[in-house]
Specification:
The complex is a heterodimer. Chain A is of the alpha+beta class. Chain A has helices spanning about 1-20, 40-55, 70-80, 105-110, 135-155, 190-210, 245-260, 270-280, 285-300, 330-345, 350-365, 410-425, 430-440, 460, 520-530, 580-595, 610-625, 630-635, 640-650, and strands at about 100, 125-135, 160, 165-170, 185, 220-225, 230-240, 325-330, 370-375, 395-400, 450-455, 475-485, 490-500, 500-510. Among the domains of chain A are: about 1-80, Orthogonal Bundle (Non-ribosomal Peptide Synthetase Peptidyl Carrier Protein, Chain A); about 275-465 and about 485-540, Chloramphenicol Acetyltransferase, CATH 3.30.559; about 580-650, Non-ribosomal Peptide Synthetase Peptidyl Carrier Protein, Chain A (Orthogonal Bundle). In chain A, α11 packs across α12 (about 410-425) and α11 (about 350-365) crosses α15. Chain A is globular and about 90 Å long. The termini of chain A are far apart. Chain B folds into 2 domains: about 20-160, no CATH class; about 160-290 and about 325-365, Rossmann fold (3-Layer(aba) Sandwich), CATH 3.40.50. Chain B has helices at about 1-10, 20-40, 55-60, 70-80, 105-110, 115-130, 130-135, 140-145, 150-155, 160-175, 195-200, 215-225, 265-275, 295, 330-335, and strands at about 50-55, 85, 90-95, 185, 205-210, 230-235, 250-255, 275-290, 340-345, 360-365. In chain B, α5 (about 105-110) packs across α6 (about 115-130) and α6 (about 115-130) crosses α9 (about 150-155). Classes of the chains: A alpha+beta, B alpha/beta. The interface of A and B includes residues 44, 594 and 599 of A.
Chain lengths: ~650, ~375
């Protein structure tokens, strides 16, 4: 407070000199302009603020309308803030029931839930079950349901629903549908074989039928009671509204509430909707545009995804589940790896990423690649942001160029630099960059289906270790867990996390598209490589890498990413719309795409459309023409002529 | 007198590179077209095969109302230079030319045009911030004067070939025509790019009234010229008759360098300026004329009206034409129409210097003593 007052005096002095006024007479609530200032003087003022107070104000911060009070606040804010100043603030929305937009990755998951997109599933979700022991059987279910009720009141996102038009809203806390119902299965005194079968069935059901916030709670939670005061807690969460980091927050909050009937969690000043509403203002700011230009300028240089040999074109795959395989590196080996990482100036994440990239390069036969990563992406706009449950996560593309005959240490440093450069431009999401890359390459197929995700070092940094004791739920053994992930547009994903000083790596992948045994081989290779990083010598030796920079396969060999353009006009002739139906579709597209004329053979995506817009446009078209065109049919020919042909075929022929 | 002034101007510049000026100027125009196209392309406009109307272009860029005339001007320039195709009625635009393989070498072009390096830096920074500038989130002033120094502005307004020529010619006009102890009024005197050479060259007794619309310039010039007891400072807005405290018929010369294009009505301002001149006095005008595409992606942002204010030219022949500069012929006509007889205009139209699009016009009241 005193700081702000002190600044006011200095600032009044600066204004006085610039405006030819007595410093004491400068009113604190009058705009610079009304006191005789102008835009040139405003610049001079910023320079004086920098000189006298050492605070750098962005050019866009200082408008001629600013008052002395506002300037003092701004200076105080900039003086205390580290990192780059983000050009938006999180404010509480006036109406918390109001719908708000989906963030880009949510959009991706939303359209991924509409059949027709490559590698899509009816629900994008994460499933996990965890072993519990010393359970107070009589109280467990009731206290868990009660904790759930209190948590849903505390964390509004748990009440979120996704609307058909691709928006979301948060149900009021007293809405009867707000709290998910706990399902309890009692398998005590059940023969072991039957219990195991029932557990497996629950797992399969929850893995293949995730909760869908389009029609109910985004979370499905169940408790299976077992003999000897043991139990398993099953939980499936929709990635559409709850990201991986939120799961940590969820379990921590949930267990804290279960453990103590009277526990109250520190209140949250803002909710996920407030955050999204603010972040959605970023596009169009200069900071966002600078990041966009940084990425878009680099698109032509990006490599292909690793050209892993396939047995089935992903466009023809209809997976129910992703296969997964996981291994844990023991604590002493992992401690040695971390020590080597520190000695070489790279983070454990960067080291494992580099090993992953090398394994992929060898399997794909080329060393320039485009990989994808999943990022927490919680922009530090408010102190509560890291305590909120929500879908903050975003993808970030990582172009990789592995230097042949470089040492592992050098490769890791280069990858870390690449990662850092990308992360420094994170205001535009990888989802948006991928869309543009798709337009650039003339394809709407996934441009980066190989993913890296790491939370290494983050638990320690954020102090987020889970409690081991959860009152009536007993003792939680996170090591005794079984998990299953289903994310659209992903062919292969590695996830890394630390648990009690061990490191676990998980591969999730679409099994039916890969050559049998390939992914398992790559996984073993990766884990072997990571373990050798515990030895100092391994960092200095060269890593075997293919000579080729880019994929070297003939056209008849099926590899990941080796597909042709999908934006060709197909059999429709280019030209203006031909009949009333084509004209009607063309007018609709002009409106949604903000263009002046639409060629009947012009590609919806090439003209700037994206997947969410496609879903919305198809919905509007169905309303206006009375005929629905499926996403799958639309993707086969996303042109005015193509859509008109589908509608004509679908309509009953006139007599 | 014309030849004497022309010679004085030419003597002030290095002759060696003059013949290359038109080509360098053309290249600078091309660079400006590249810049315009890049702003449109980066906003996702005119993807291959995609058409837009001009209003869709302006809306996508979220151009502030006061700057919309600038982008309309860009669209016309891009069409005129074949960088964008327009339908027969001009309403539908498409086929924006792709980005050049290598960006234009702005520093080299500016050097060839005799601009100091700060000018190329200014052009580059302005180009980089155009989306924000057009949305009015950042002012060009902050790019131009951003480093708390006037070096950039000096380079743009003062230290370049054409200004050296024009200032020398202008001084020569004054030297040959002013009576002893003359009274000189300068409008929009800015960074002093004209005042300084005039006051340096004319060493005798002189009363110099240095005026500008912005207090900033008066402060800066005050620091620069305070040692010269012949100079007085005053705020004066050429578009605000109430701020004119100059007595009719009191001036031997009125200098208006790079300011008259800001007139809402050029006729009104010329009439007023003439009223301040004694019979036989001189109006000395330095102006840009011609297309000047590089200005359309930089300095023109200074020329948009303040929100709610009428635009420059909105009450004269420029009304509705989304342009700021008059041509040489239009200036000559405007002077005549407002009771001013042209005395000279330099450089000669066939001289390479004229490619730079800057002009000195001198006129004297046609009907001495008349006031309106």
């Amino acid at each position: 407070m005193t700081d702000t007052l002190d600044h006011r005096e200095t600032l009044a002095g600066i204004w006085g000199r610039l405006l030819g006024l007595d410093a004491a007479a400068v009113p604190h609530d009058a705009g610079f302009l009304t006191l005789g200032g102008d835009s040139v003087l405003a610049v001079r003022m910023s320079a004086q603020v920098r000189k006298q107070l050492g605070v750098v104000l962005a050019l866009s911060d200082v408008r001629v309308e600013i008052t002395l009070s506002e300037l003092a606040d701004l200076v105080a804010q900039r003086a205390s803030g580290g990192g780059r100043a983000l050009p938006v603030d999180v404010l509480r929305r006036t109406d918390p029931d109001e719908p708000f937009p989906l963030l880009p990755l949510q959009q991706g998951y939303f359209v991924g839930q509409q059949d027709g997109w490559e590698l899509s599933y009816p629900s994008a979700h994460h499933y996990v079950d965890i072993g519990l022991s010393e359970v107070e059987v009589d109280e467990a279910a009731e206290s868990l349901q009660d904790a759930l009720r209190r948590l849903v009141a505390h964390q509004p996102t748990l009440r979120a629903r996704v609307l058909p038009d691709g928006q979301q809203r948060i149900l009021p806390a007293d809405d009867p549908a707000a709290v998910p119902t706990l399902t309890v299965t009692d398998l005590r005194d059940t023969p072991a074989d039957d219990a195991a079968r029932t557990l497996a069935a629950t797992r399969h059901e929850m893995s293949t039928n995730g909760p869908n916030p389009a029609d109910g709670p985004g979370i499905d939670i169940r408790l299976t009671l077992l003999d000897d005061d043991r139990a398993r807690l099953h939980c499936a969460v929709s990635l559409l509204i709850i990201d991986g980091w939120s799961s940590n927050v969820f379990y921590r909050d949930l267990f804290a509430l279960v453990a103590d009937w009277n526990a109250t969690l520190a209140p949250l000043d803002v909710d996920y909707g407030d955050y999204v509403t603010s972040v959605r203002q970023l596009p169009g700011t200069a900071a966002w545009e600078a990041d966009r230009d940084w990425w878009f300028d680099r698109l032509p240089e990006f490599g292909q995804p690793p050209a892993l040999p396939l047995r089935l074109d992903p466009a023809h795959a209809r997976p129910d589940l992703m296969a997964s395989t996981q291994q844990t590196v023991d604590s002493s080996t992992w401690a040695a790896v971390r020590a080597q990482c520190a000695a070489h100036g790279v983070t454990p994440s960067a080291a494992v990423f580099t090993a992953y990239a090398c394994v992929l390069a060898r399997a794909a036969g080329h060393r320039v690649m485009l990989l994808n990563s999943l990022q927490l992406n919680r922009l530090p706009l408010h102190p509560d942001v890291h305590r909120i449950i929500g879908a903050f996560a975003s993808t970030m593309l990582i172009p990789v160029e592995l230097e042949p005959s470089a040492s592992f240490a050098d490769l890791a440093l280069a990858c870390q630099r690449q990662f850092g450069d990308a992360a420094a431009h994170n205001l535009i999401s990888g989802v948006e960059v991928s869309r543009e890359l798709g337009r650039h390459r003339g394809t709407h197929r996934p441009v980066a289906p190989v993913v890296f995700q790491s939370t290494l070092g983050m638990d320690a940094a954020m102090g987020q270790r889970l409690p081991q004791d959860a009152g009536p739920l007993g003792v939680i053994d996170m090591h005794d867990h079984h998990q299953q992930l289903r994310t659209p547009q992903v062919a292969l994903e590695v996830r890394l996390f630390e648990l009690d000083d061990t490191m676990t790596a998980v591969f999730s992948y679409v099994e039916e598209i890969f050559e049998p045994g390939l992914v398992e081989r790559m996984f073993r290779e990766l884990l072997d490589h990571v373990r050798t990083l515990a030895e100092p010598g391994s960092w200095d030796s060269a890593v075997p890498l293919p000579a080729a920079e880019h994929p070297q396969h003939s056209a008849d060999v099926l590899v990941l990413g080796g597909y042709g353009r999908t934006d060709t006009a197909g059999d429709s002739e280019s030209g203006p719309p031909r009949d009333d139906l084509e004209k009607q579709i063309s007018l609709l597209w002009q409106d949604v795409l903000d263009v002046a004329e639409v060629d009947r053979a012009g590609n919806f995506f090439a003209m700037g459309g994206d997947s969410l817009l496609a879903v919305r446009t198809l919905a509007r078209l169905a309303r206006e023409t009375g005929t629905a065109v499926s996403v799958r049919d639309f993707l086969a020919s996303p042109t005015v002529a193509g859509v008109a042909a589908r509608i004509r075929t679908a309509r009953p022929h006139p007599a | 007198m014309i030849e004497r002034c022309d010679r004085a101007g030419l003597a002030a510049v290095d002759q060696a590179g003059l013949s290359a000026l038109p080509e360098a100027m053309r290249a600078l125009d091309e660079a400006a077209l590249d810049t315009m196209a890049a702003v449109l392309r980066r906003a996702g406009l005119f993807r291959p095969g995609v058409s837009h109307r001009a209003d869709q272009v302006l809306d996508r860029l979220r151009v502030a109302d006061r700057h919309r005339w600038i982008v309309r001007g860009w669209v016309r320039a891009l069409v005129r230079h074949g960088r964008l195709q327009a339908s027969a009625d001009g309403a539908v635009l498409r086929d924006l030319s792709p980005a050049p393989a290598t960006p234009a070498p702005l520093p080299e072009l500016c050097a060839r045009l005799g601009y100091p390096p700060e000018v190329a830096t200014f052009f580059t920074s302005a180009a980089a911030r155009l989306p924000e500038l057009l949305r009015d989130e950042v002012t060009l002033q902050s790019v131009l004067f951003g480093a708390d120094s006037t070096e950039t502005a000096d380079g743009v307004y003062r230290e370049n070939v054409i200004n050296s020529y024009l200032n020398a010619a202008l001084v020569e006009v004054l030297r040959g025509t002013l009576p002893p102890a003359p009274r000189v009024l300068e409008l929009g005197a800015g960074v002093g790019a004209t005042a300084v050479p005039v006051l340096t060259s004319l060493t005798g007794p002189l009363e110099y009234l240095f005026t500008d619309v912005s207090r900033y310039f008066l402060d800066t010039a005050g620091e620069l010229l305070s040692a010269d007891g012949r100079v007085r400072f005053g705020e004066l807005d050429i578009n605000e008759p109430a701020s004119h405290t100059v007595d009719a018929g009191s001036c031997d010369a009125v200098i208006a360098a790079n300011v008259l294009h800001n007139a809402i009505d050029v006729n009104a301002v010329l009439t007023t300026a003439r009223s301040w001149l004694r019979p036989g006095g001189l109006l000395l005008v330095v102006e840009s004329c011609g297309e000047l595409l590089q200005a359309a992606v930089s300095m023109q942002l200074l020329m948009s009206p303040a929100p709610g204010r009428p635009a420059a030219g909105s009450l004269d022949l420029r009304a509705g034409e989304d342009r700021i500069f008059l041509t040489r012929d239009e200036w000559v006509t405007a002077l005549r129409d407002n009771g001013l007889s042209p005395v000279l205009d330099l450089p000669h139209p066939d001289h390479p210097l004229s490619a730079l699009g800057q002009l000195l016009l001198v006129a004297t009241p046609t009907t001495p003593g008349a006031t309106r």
